[in-house]
Write a structure and sequence with these properties.
The protein is α/β, with parallel strands linked by helices and about 350 residues long. It has helices at about 10-20, 40-45, 65-75, 90-95, 95-115, 150-170, 190-200, 220-235, 270-280, 305-310, 320-335; strands spanning about 1-5, 25-30, 55-60, 80, 120-125, 175-180, 180-185, 205-210, 215, 220, 255-260, 265-270, 285-290.
């Protein structure tokens, strides 16, 4: 198939593109290469894709409406994996407009491109942050997600609503994937694992929010990619049992689906830090701080829906995943500083 992967220079995008190329798909990778974090890291990710003859890179911002219209008209993609977004909960408190431009306007352009070029299936990144103020655990696709606590979360909920509208009006099959704290090699420098590893190796203290009383459903990158590719291959369908008198938030009479992709195994933040210390062979000096605005104390994914749909749910343990990241980090930054 000919597949568009937006955010191809990003953490998840690069890994997804690699798997699609390895199995023989033609991939067009799109990214705007912004400077939200180290642009060199993005270039180095792309360098892992460009040797493939079936890969082409397009530098383009998803918020560029004329550019996106031309891209879809010229390329005629079979399917689309939309991973481009302005990421980060805390940054959304400082620069909310960036989230509207990329996550709302950009997503609108993707939906329009899919609609007008008859794309067979759109799979897009949502987030566990849509659960916002929910405290019922584990988080289920059947629960209401009407209480976001950050602009980032609000834009991801908006994406799900926009996708449903296009699935209903134009019968465009869409699948939203609520990612839970993705980590692993080639990860984002603004994420806790990257920040902690860097600080510990440099002998600096790490900031531990909510005084360490946090739980996260850390999900390893290979499991995320497996879920993305499997859902891409199973096109969303209407639920014949959908009841409009008692509407289920996770189902629809349109070709629309949303799934959690998480490890179904929340880990205490202090245990996560211990796994990093073990992998590094060093102890961290900890600076305990209160919970930050926009953050939530815990996430926990229910994954039975995903397992029932594609026969897979994540399961890589934190100790194994953290060790893989630390091995990559040491190798990458030793090469980068030589």
């Amino acid at each position: 198939m000919k597949i568009l992967v937006t955010g191809a220079a990003g953490f998840i995008g690069m890994h997804v593109a690699q798997v699609l190329l390895a199995r023989g798909d033609e991939v067009v990778g799109l990214d705007n290469l912004n400077d939200y974090y180290d642009v060199q890291l993005k270039h180095d990710r792309l360098a892992r894709l460009t040797p493939h003859q079936a890969f082409r890179f397009v530098k383009l911002d998803v918020a560029d409406r004329p550019g996106m219209e031309r891209l879809f008209a010229e390329e005629r993609f079979d399917r689309v994996v939309h991973l481009a977004a302005q990421a980060g909960v805390r940054y959304s408190l400082k620069n909310p407009h960036a989230y509207i431009d990329s996550n709302v306007v950009g997503f609108m352009n993707v939906l329009e491109g899919c609609r007008h070029s008859q794309v067979q299936h759109l799979v897009y990144a949502s987030s566990s942050s849509v659960y916002g103020g929910n405290t019922k655990m584990p988080f289920s696709e059947h629960d209401s997600v009407d209480h976001p606590v950050s602009m980032y979360a609000a834009t991801k909920k908006a994406n799900e609503l926009m996708a449903h509208t296009y699935s209903h009006l134009y019968r465009l099959p869409t699948t939203g994937l609520r990612f839970f704290t993705v980590y692993g090699p080639w990860g984002r420098p603004d994420m806790a694992l990257f920040l902690f590893t860097k600080a510990i190796l440099e002998g600096r203290p790490i900031d531990v929010f909510n005084h360490g009383r946090m739980k996260r459903d850390f999900t390893y990158i290979d499991d995320i990619v497996e879920g993305v590719v499997r859902t891409l291959d199973r096109v969303a369908e209407p639920d014949p049992e959908f009841d409009p008198l008692a509407p289920d938030p996770g189902r629809s009479d349109a070709p629309y689906r949303v799934f959690n992709i998480g490890n179904h195994d929340p880990v205490e933040l202090m245990a996560f830090i211990e796994a990093i210390e073990e992998a590094l062979g060093r102890k961290a000096e900890k600076n305990f701080l209160p919970l930050q605005d926009g953050d939530v104390p815990a996430t926990y994914a229910e994954t039975e829906e995903l397992r029932g749909w594609v026969g897979f749910a994540p399961g890589t343990g934190v100790c194994e995943g953290v060790a893989e990241f630390v091995g990559w980090y040491k190798t990458y930054y030793r090469q980068s500083t030589n």
